[in-house]
Write a structure and sequence with these properties.
This protein is an all-beta fold. The chain contains no helices and 13 strands. The strands form 2 sheets. Strands 1-2-13-4-9-10-11 form a 7-stranded antiparallel sheet, with no helix packed on it. A 6-stranded antiparallel sheet has the order 3-12-5-6-7-8, with no helix packed on it. Strand 10 and strand 11 form a beta hairpin.
């Protein structure tokens, strides 16, 4: 299996918190604690990382409560090492409560944005085509931006290999009232075999433990 951990290799340290305060799929979700990276690294899978080619869809649901004015980020790494150099950022999406925007670092095209919806569970989706070297980002089923995967979030990178190597949940800026966003139902589906997904935190004790090393 593979486990959620902190940036740089810490396991069982302070990460996101499993909570029943909000949930899209009852009874729990992950509350993103300020200044606590929560990382899952797919290279650590027992069977190896399957996401090195082909087409994949990644989805999650996000809830931003009224009064949240901080910034929380959903990050996907093309390359992640624990710890070390050579990390490659492929996805950076900001839930920016202070501006009321969802911002995407969309490669050479710069920042693309959509209004952030408060007090409602909303879907974020990435359609990742590693063969065609493209990624599209959707919020609430509307296209926000698209860019070249191997050029990274700034459009200036040049990844030698293409893969989905890790997810990092990163609350970058604190909210003045101490609130933060919640995430639920993070899923990755292999479009090359639509009958098989790639679950990694179903919350039933199988696969990987959920954030905060809590299996249920």
């Amino acid at each position: 299996g593979v486990m959620w951990k902190t940036w740089g290799g810490g396991i069982g340290a302070v990460t996101s918190t499993v909570t029943t305060a909000q949930a899209s799929s009852a009874p729990q979700s992950a509350l993103l604690n300020f200044n606590c990276d929560t990382v899952i690294e797919f290279d650590e899978m027992v069977t190896g990382n399957p996401m090195v080619a082909g087409q994949w869809t990644m989805t999650a649901e996000v809830y931003a409560p009224t009064g949240f004015d901080g910034i929380s980020m959903f990050i996907v790494m093309n390359e992640y090492t624990d710890p070390g150099a050579g990390n490659e950022w492929a996805v950076q999406v900001y839930f920016n409560g202070s501006t009321g925007q969802v911002d995407c670092d969309c490669g050479i095209g710069g920042t693309a944005s959509a209004p952030l919806i408060f007090d409602s569970w909303e879907e974020v989706r990435w359609e990742i085509d590693l063969d065609a070297d493209r990624v599209k980002f959707f919020y609430r089923d509307s296209l926000v931006g698209a860019y070249v995967w191997s050029k990274g979030t700034d459009g200036l990178s040049s990844f030698a290999n293409r893969k989905v190597d890790a997810i990092d949940l990163w609350p970058q800026a604190a909210s003045t009232n101490g609130s933060n966003v919640y995430l639920d139902n993070i899923k990755i589906v292999d479009l090359n075999n639509t009958s098989v997904g790639t679950p990694f935190c179903p919350g039933d004790g199988n696969y990987a433990p959920c954030p905060c090393v809590n299996p249920n």
